[in-house]
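Our preliminary data section would be incomplete without showing what the modeling component actually yields. Below, a chain of 323 amino acids is followed by its predicted structure, encoded as tokens that our downstream tools consume directly.
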Amino acid sequence: MPQATTVSATMRAISQEMAGPPDVLELIETKRPEPGRGEILVRVHAAGVNPADWKIRERGVFADGAPLPFTLGFDVSGVVEKTGDGVTLFQPGDEVFGMPRFPHPAGAYAEYVTAPARHFAPRPPGLTHVQSGALPLASLTAWQALVDTADVRPGQRVLIHAAAGGVGHLAVQIAKARGAHVIGTASAAKHDLLRSLGADELIDYRTQDFAETVRDVDVVLDSLGGPNWARSLRTLRPGGTLISILPLDDTFPAAAAEAAGVRAVFMLVEPDQQGLREISTLVEDGRLRVIADTVLPLEEAPRAHALGETGRTTGKIVLSVVP
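Predicted structure:
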């Protein structure tokens, strides 16, 4: 039987009723969800903000067609409040983090979320909720791209675009932990930070053309798309891998990739408890640190989106739900 604790029947959440700019996000009071079979109810302490969030907000629809109104957010760090039937992995009081239900609505911009228990893992020891709330989507994207998809190995050369961004700064560290030679693109102001995270070579995209200077790369992780795809092909050795974390469209040079003998793929991140545990181990070993560039209260979700859309932030933006 579900285990019960005294929990409010309502909660604060950020909702949107129409597509549009950041100010369509509104703080509301709504009914608190109940965990179903195999699910846990998590009291959210922090919720990470990701590009996927503001893209969904602008379109007004999730990729699976989930209609308005809805609550955005996938990254969660919090405490288990209740467990549904059949859950043995966690119990009330356990601290967890995860990326539940992605790419389907998870509703992380709220005081409570429910999701399958195995979409979560124990929160990394030593991290605050804000730090662990910044990790799931970005770190799982980097892990699944570089480890599961590309199988990065010691001595390989890895090029990471937007290396100081949410995914990028974690990808630099994961590639380095795998023994790779890491090359990153970022503005010059962010080079010192990236060197401290383990980057071996850095390209200032504002003054240098990476496509003219970088060669014999084994793996490219691209979060930019468009013209960057074709330019990235020029850096890869035959047999190399170009991984886009943006969906491929008709601008992707598929014929050129095939002619160059390059593997080119689109990777969509998935909920992954084992990946979260691997990431937690890297954190505990001191080989991975997450940068929460900006922390704002839940009610300032519109401001968080406006900042994120500038494309100038370093690391992650996080909403603090429990002060």
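The mean pLDDT is 95. Residues 138-266 form a domain with the Rossmann fold fold (CATH 3.40.50.720). Preliminary results of this kind motivate Aim 1 of the renewal.
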